[in-house]
Amino acid sequence: MRCASPSSDGKRPQFGTRFLTDPRQVFQHNAWDNVEWTEEQEASAKKKVLENCQPLPSEKQEEYENRANEYWNDFYTIHENRFFKDRHWLFTEFPELCPQCSPNNVTHQKVSSTGRCVQDEERAKQGAAVSPINVNFPGATASYRILEVGCGVGNTVFPILKTNNDPELFVYCCDFSSTAVDLVKTNPEYNLGRCFAFVHDLSDVEANYPIPDGTLDVIVLIFVLSALHPIKMQASISRLARLLKPGGVMLLRDYGRYDMAQLRFKKGRCLSDNFYVRGDGTRVYFFTQEELHSMFTEAGLEKVQNLVDRRLQVNRGKQLTMYRVWIQCKYHKPLVPSPETRDGDAEHDCS
User: Fold this and answer.
1) What architecture does CATH give domain 26-97+139-333?
2) Alpha helices per DSSP H over 266-337
3) d(CA 120, CA 138)
4) pLDDT tens, 83-124?
5) Does the model's pTM come out above 0.85?
């Protein structure tokens, strides 16, 4: 194991600059950044995955699919808002969630009198020109709209609302679990004037969203796409892409191939290649960069960022090392759609 130094080859500097140059110092800190695996480590990880690749019987797989809502409701009933911490790292990794708060945007982009970068306002104008807005939907008068899919109990939504004080901001959030959405709505910080939470099954592409197509600036997916059955992922991303304004961006952070969580699964938990069921009945998939790139581009989006975040987390008390692998993506909707995308969109009404 070794840690790479910062470079100009597209590796992200945001998540920290703590690099392990002396393996003897591994327990000096809780985490190390940009960890690169040795060939031996990668070979060992592949071997471990192959040892647990026998899928469960089809009837068990159908049970987990059909009862997915029940398992997630049980999860949030048990844990309520105690399981996840607020994701304050979001604004470092995804400055699009609070453009006026980003030092990078202040430095490199022109900022208007509203505090938002001029590029964002121009994009909003273009989006409004392309997509006439039905004034009867929540947040219709806002000029900057964010949707988080798979919001859980609000560990992303509420930090956005606290940090981004743009009066033109409106945040939507949805989750498969009605229990999770109820917990969001009962949070003292939930404000219908700035936020709208609703129950939605991302994998049901025929289900209506309370937002017209072509009206969102940002869509956020944080460890949510991996919970879907792999055969439903492409259609789900394509449906979400229709909600974006021209120039709008989809942000994703999710589990990468050979993450510690994948390697810890025991036999009898595999559903299909790189897709597993946890002990509580919830499911998880582990992606490669190529798989995600293919999905986003198939949905008509263009790459802004697609990187692997390899981190070494350390439990200094127990002298344990834990190798995490996450993938982070940003893909935007072209200002001028391709002829193929235009033809496809013409077949759909706003829903």
Assistant:
1) 3-Layer(aba) Sandwich (3.40)
2) 289-298
3) 21
4) 455 566 788 889 999 887 755 443 334 333 344 444 455 554
5) no
